[in-house]
Amino acid sequence: MKAASKLQRMCESGNFVVTGEIGPPKSCNGEIVRHHAKMLKGWCESFNLTDNQTAIVRLSSIAAGKILLEEGLEPNIQIVCRDRNRIAAQSDILGASALGMKNVLCLSGDHQKFGNHPTAKNVFDVDSIQLIQILDGMRKGYFANGEQMKDEPPQLFIGCAANPFADPFEFRVTRLEKKADAGADFCQTQCILDMERFERWMELVRARGLHKRIKILGGITPIKSVKAAKYMKKFVAGMMVSDDLIERLEKAEDVKAEGLQIAIEQIERLKKMEGIAGVHIMAIAWEEKVPEICQRAGLAPRPEV
Amino acid sequence: MIIAERKPIDEILGFLSKHQKVLVLGCGGCVTVCLAGGEKEVGILGSELAMARSKEGRPLEVVQKTIERQCDFEYLEGIRHIVKDVDAILSLACGIGIQTCAEAFPDKIVWPGVNTKFLGVNLNVGVWAERCQACGQCVLDKTGGICPVARCSKSIFNGPCGGSQNGKCEVDPDTDCAWALIHDRLARLGEVDSLREIMAIKDWSFSRDGGPRKLVREDLELESGK
pTM (2 decimals)? Predict the structure, then answer.
């Protein structure tokens, strides 16, 4: 048996977990991934590599993950159901595993309508919960068709997403429960821009004891501008931005500094919240601020596990 | 029923550019009900085509006919004498009717006059919505009579995904989130807990993914003695 991923060891250690995110470029320029990797090394346990996010063609998450491994960072490969059937998904998992990747995050995937190939055919052979089930089966040594693997199974630490800001609100907790039932080990939430709603969701999560079955990492996104906050509130489906947050940004002299300050305060709040195992920092197009956020939020240095 | 929409007139004129005499063939089935290719639409399109061509100085003789069902060889047999005298057929039936027509008349060019859209329902005057994708293995028993295959933009079985807000789908604010509908209906029926169970991965071999489908009912074959 190969050693568990650092992310898994951290989750199991009881330490407050920190994960980050790197979006691969719209080109074959691996140096861009390498640049971000060098900048972010050591600040998080593991880094998500998005899989053609918002349905825009980008350097593959597994290839980007390989670059991270070369740079000494631990990747968390995102895998969406939009572009792969069960054959391709399992093949990619075997490939990623052969390259030394152990963390996988299962997602439905943004609809291709939002991307740069809106005329594409989507796949959705399986959904994200079914994909978790398939991966859970794979690590136990069998394929989705029930066939036993003849060799060592891939060692996987399986992740999922949860969106407390989508509807129907209470069913969002049931959906997380289904993901835990399917075999997910950890969950990263949609970025929290409405802390009140998030707390209400966590209450329901705790009432069902789900935090004891799955490690929950709260999503943190520092906001750069009032315009961005308003846009997300109005136009991004499944996003909620509280009026308080917008007001604070509007009143701030230095909006960017305030955005960072809010993110740091959110992390402090999540640290104290029962059932929260850590944070997932998504500093979209603002990756260079991750070290500062981690430092000021008391997340550095990362413990050795 | 099958919902279709007539193709743009310019596209149709392009198909017919080299013909002098065509049969505009309507169908009395679904396309009559959804106002795309019944007797009335045949009449309107026939006049439009004739007018457009006479403007161009290249008159087109249009023969109009609407039969009971174009997806039935028996009804197509009845117009063989008309088909004989035209250069081509412009079929206003759904994709099934168009193909049956082409199969019945192998020596005749058959042009599609409509785009076949989906299997759906008429919601309001001029509004139709998709309801079924003929996936071959119905799951409506588990989803409160609302189909996630046809009505969820991602055809997922354990929804709603993270893009569902206020009961609407992220793909289009005018589209209901199928999983929100499923959830709410099952809640109303006191059955919402059934959604806690994970719906297993689907066997798509019953759908188009198993290759073109064919249904053979041996009981009926035997009965007919063929």
Answer: 0.96
- Per the CB < 8 A criterion, the answer to whether A156 and A186 are in contact is no
* pLDDT, averaged across chain B: 96
Instruction: Residue B84: name the closest of B56, B57, B65 by CA.
Output: B65
Q: Considering Cα of A218, then A219, then A225, then A230, what sign does the dihedral take?
A: negative
Short-list A256, A266, A176, CA closest to A220: A266
Which is it for the CA torsion B137, B138, B141, B147, positive or negative?
positive
Q: What structural domains does chain B harbor?
A: 2-118 (3.40.50.2300), 134-210 (no CATH)
Could you report the per-residue pLDDT of A153-190, keeping only the tens digit for each? Answer: 999 999 999 999 999 999 999 999 999 999 999 999 99
How close A114 comes to chain B (CA, Å)? 8
Q: CB neighbours of A131 closer than 8 A, spacing ≥ 6?
A: A79, A81, A89, A106
A87 contacts on B by Cβ (under 8 Å) = none
What is the count of residue pairs from A and B with beta carbons less than 8 Å apart? Answer: 96
The residue segments making up the domain with residue A23 are: 6-296
Give the number of domains in chain A. 1
At residue A202, the pLDDT reads 98
What is the reported pLDDT for B222? 87
CA–CA distance, B44 with B31 (Å, rounded to integer): 14
pLDDT one-digit tens code per residue, A50-72: 999 999 999 999 999 999 999 99
Residue A237 to residue B201, Cβ atoms within 8 A: no
Measured between CB atoms, which of B158, B160, B198 is closest to A166?
B160
> Average pLDDT of A37-50?
98
Q: Please identify which residue in the block is written with the tokens 């980008």.
A: A58
